[in-house]
Input
Amino acid sequence: MNKTALWFIRGAVFCALMYAVPSMAIVDTYCPSDLNGDGISDDPDVVCRHITGGDGFAKMADGKDLYVFGFGDATGVPDGEVMMTNMLGANTPAPTIVVKEGQEVYLTLSNVGMANRPDLFDAHSVHWHGFPNASVYYDGVPDASVAINMGASLWYYYKAMDPGTYMYHCHVEVVEHMEMGMVGNLFVTPLQDGTAFDDPTDSVVKNFTKFAYNDGDGTTGYDVDKLIQLGDFDSRFHDASISVQPLPFDTLDGDYHLINGRGYPDTINPDPIVNVDGNPYQPEDSLVTVTQGQRVLLRVSNLSATEYHTLRSLGIPMKVIGRDARILRTGGDPAGTDLYYYTSSVTLGGGQSYDVLLDTTGVAPGTYFLYSRNLNDLNNKDERRGGMMTQIVVQ
Amino acid sequence: MLNRLKKKLGLVVAMAVLGVVMAACPASAVIQGVTGTAFNFTAKPGYIYGGDGVSIYIWGFANGTGVVQYPGPTLLLHEGDNVSITLTNSLTTNVSMVFPGMSNVAVTPGGSGVPGIITTECPPAGTVTYTFTAANPGTYYYQSGTDPALQVEMGLFGAIVVYPTGSFPASPGVLSQPGHAYNDTQGDSAYDREYLLIVSEMDARIHRAAERGIAPDTNGFFSVYWFYNGRNMPDTMGAAGDPMLPTQPYNALFQMHPGEKVLYRIVGIGRELHPVHPHGNHTNLIAQDGRLLSSGPANGADLRKRLFTIPTTPGGTYDTIFEWTGANVGWDIYGHAPGDPMQPNEFAADHGKPFPTPIPHQQDLMPGQLYSGSPFLGGSGALPPGEGGFNPTGAYMHMVHDHVEKELCNDGIFPGGAMTIMAIEHPSVPIP
Output
């Protein structure tokens, strides 16, 4: 082969490579099972989600507008519109992602930048907290893998094999990004869902079709499940951030104490809380309304960057059936022996999760409280009778 | 030609870096400590380095008349050992030792001991001999029993590992050996490697006050430094016995191969609760406070818990076993083609399955220093100039850290604190 031909081939390969690599700095959904280009999977065994990392505002229960970082939902939003729709689109907490056991998950993360902090050029990532046998590339720790710069997209893949209550959060500059609000939850529902089981351990005959785990006997069955994400914001830290001041890492200590990103009484407001920009970015209430006899599954997690919390149920016993996305049986194994226990409180440090059943059989209709027993959590900063508290209404 | 030269040069550089890392590692795959049954300790003042380079005044235990260290020397004992520790006090205040979980704790008559609230204390310049029996295998600790609110905070503590009969490092201080942590016959406590993880914290104001002889405020405690084995990140990941950190001889850098069982012996020595989160997989918590989580003597660790975050309590110890194979990720973590031979402990169902997503353009990514440039275990790939370089073996560097996230700071500076790395190495990479 002569030299010219060799150069020609090299040139052709170079050009091919240029077109083969993904284009730079562009929002780009990756969803191989999307057949019609709407960004939504057309295969029932595959889930595609698109979330964005950026900034925005949350409204605290005392009316305070708090500057936050967060994830927004861009699933189904055309790629060309994502920057416009999701800039300033931080949700508090991040959108809850629910997938079924066995499903493959393609998660696109686009970084829409910090509109209020043009001096920042932070990258973002997603850490699926608790994902079993994780690879580092999809684990989202920026030191050991990659994170995505502004204006571009990164693609994660997970095969969800183990049901349970998980968390996800940004792991870039993790103290700052978690404290600022880049925290969310992820549930994997079991294959057993849809089959009917009567829990042999309870007093009434009732066929459950939804379960926390593949228990094989209905003991983790529920009628209603509820996200209970515990968290704290230190308003001094957030105010320093929006004022472009040094961040007080050394004195970090929450003064807003939250369930699902809200303090009481916002926790029991069934409507989204609208922020200072007029956007409904705190969509998750924690009011549980049930008919007497129904069973509630509380999916409790602590995503606070600063504190432990003890969540207490007043009037309805808690039955702990799962911990850290594993059924509470010996070795976390569905085939193990039950280690379920009754209690009236669970204590969680950051990054822990509990699955708790509240059975309302025989519970008189009325309003019951679920609240943090760390008494200083019952404040919305200086306002008392607020904070980390919500209600269970039995009808 | 130029390309070939570049490749060779790259390889040479990579091998050189690997060599440096490997040379630094032999002392890391092991629980370092002191062996025997008769020890001489000295309580004395000294200084450690915070991860931010600041000197912090401490009180600690030294082995013999050696250098004070934070934490104190780890005692590596056999089950049933009758142990004596002769404590000499070079501090200007009384000091003592207590041994939670140990049997027959006593003070040998004849020393210069004086009665204290909790135990016999050793006055300044005095000597007291404490004795105890290490009756049960497990993970324990010792600490000062005198004014613990101040003295434990200052650094007067250390870990104790009691190995069951027949399971002991063949060459202590050199090589970690497979073993079993307890005397169960089910194999629930069997491990291939073991690591110690002592979690502690500090309020720098207390140490500054003690240094200046001012009465320290132990009541208004507010921690600003968090330690694994006496070091803040990034020093946790440095070599053990690093001469730059003479009073912090223990590191906390972990290594394993896929399929191995790694026992973490976690000691919550401070006053705070710490949720320890090992990335990469769940762990099996098999024991607490030196006792198997067991429903009866013949039942092994049948009450073990499977957790992705291990919450430590003040003064509690936790033995938890971490395993990792990459099972069920849905793609081949080695980047094999379908016909390639299998790696040991590889998850067969994913063999040869392609990597499932594109990788964004380099300029859109922020690569980490511990990223090899490749998503595959043992792989490597192109990185932008100046990036990466701290992972020449292409290990999966999974973080292990406290999940009270603010504890990843050194006195207000991120990153730092209670954080380290578990390096899951390709099966072909030797781990000392």
Summary: Residues 173 and 188 of chain A are 27 Å apart (CA to CA). Chain A touches chain B through 72 residues (CB under 8 Å). DSSP finds four helices and 27 strands in chain A. The radius of gyration of chain A is 23 Å.
